[in-house]
TrEMBL record:
It holds the Pfam family HTH_Tnp_Tc3_1. This is Tc3 transposase DNA binding domain-containing protein. Coiled coil: none annotated. Transmembrane segments: none annotated.
Length: 289
């Protein structure tokens, strides 16, 4: 049988008071609604009650080992199996996961994919925002925001979630080998005007990037924008190549200075988000033509 709960400090005090008042053990049991064995064990030696260790298999993981495990796990670098192997713990990886799940300050969650922000990145972002804080709406409407975007033919990266009816079979989503391929596009907009979407083929180079700008950006600027427009691009290697900078100078193009690690500052990301939700809705898949 499982052991009952230990007597509380209040119950111990009442037991002693009733015992000194010459109450019988049966009367004490009836009054406090505890077992006869609990009363006998306590009254046999009240001072030693609770000091005896309960029988059972000793824990394999010592207090120091558990503390070391929690300290290493809190760094967020190693998984449960790696913790078990690197720390040479006497328990299996499954037990490691149980211990970590029981800890109130640890939880197992998906790592966010965001650019690594160092101090100089943050400083540059603040300086950029401070310089542009006085810009007016016409100033911002003169900026041509641009970026590339990849669409996977087998749906977006990451986990797909849905509300599942437990009375029906599980829904599955089968991906093809190598993910079924992808499609890379280049786009731009200024104010309420959108540039024609460019379909990019193969690995992109600085020469191909210049070709995209000549075929799509320049016609868009000539037809839709005035002479004072400014071009925005991120710090990708092909964007900052020497041949690309020379082409900007030849075209007398003003390029907006852009802080590194700052895709969230580009409003075209909102357009990509709208387009991605439309493309990927209902977890649809696409096939090569």
């Amino acid at each position: 049988m499982p052991r009952g709960r230990s007597l509380s400090a209040e119950e111990r005090g009442k037991f002693l008071a009733f015992h000194e008042a010459k109450w019988s053990q049966s009367r004490i049991v009836k009054e406090l609604k505890r077992s006869q064995a609990a009363v006998k064990n306590f009254l046999r030696n009240p001072e030693a009650y609770g000091s005896k260790k309960r029988a059972g298999r000793p824990r394999k993981l010592t207090v120091a080992s558990r503390r070391m495990l929690l300290r290493e796990a809190s760094k967020g670098i190693l998984g449960s199996r790696e913790l078990y192997q690197d720390l040479q713990l006497p328990v299996q990886a499954r037990r490691v996961r149980q211990i970590l799940n029981q800890h109130p300050t640890l939880t197992y969650k998906k790592i966010k994919r965001v650019p690594q922000m160092l101090i100089h990145h943050k400083t540059a972002r603040v300086a950029w925002a401070t310089e542009k804080v006085t810009w007016t709406i016409p100033d911002w409407n003169n900026v041509v925001w641009s970026d590339e975007k990849k669409f996977n033919l087998d749906g977006p990266d990451g986990f797909a979630c849905c509300w599942h009816d437990l009375r029906r079979e599980d829904l599955i989503f089968s991906k093809r080998q190598q993910g079924g391929g992808s499609l890379m596009v280049w786009g731009a907009f200024a104010g309420g005007k959108k540039c024609e979407l460019a379909i990019l083929e193969g690995k992109q180079t600085a020469v191909k990037y210049i070709g995209t700008l000549e075929s799509f950006l320049l016609p868009f600027a000539d037809q839709e924008l005035g002479p004072s427009w400014v071009f925005q691009q991120d710090g990708a290697l092909i964007h900052c190549a020497h041949i690309v900078r020379e082409w900007f100078n030849e075209e007398d193009m003003v390029v907006l200075d852009w802080p590194a690690k700052s895709p969230d500052l580009n409003p075209i990301e909102n357009l990509w988000g709208i387009r991605a939700r439309k493309v990927y809705e209902h977890r649809r898949q696409f096939w090569r033509g």
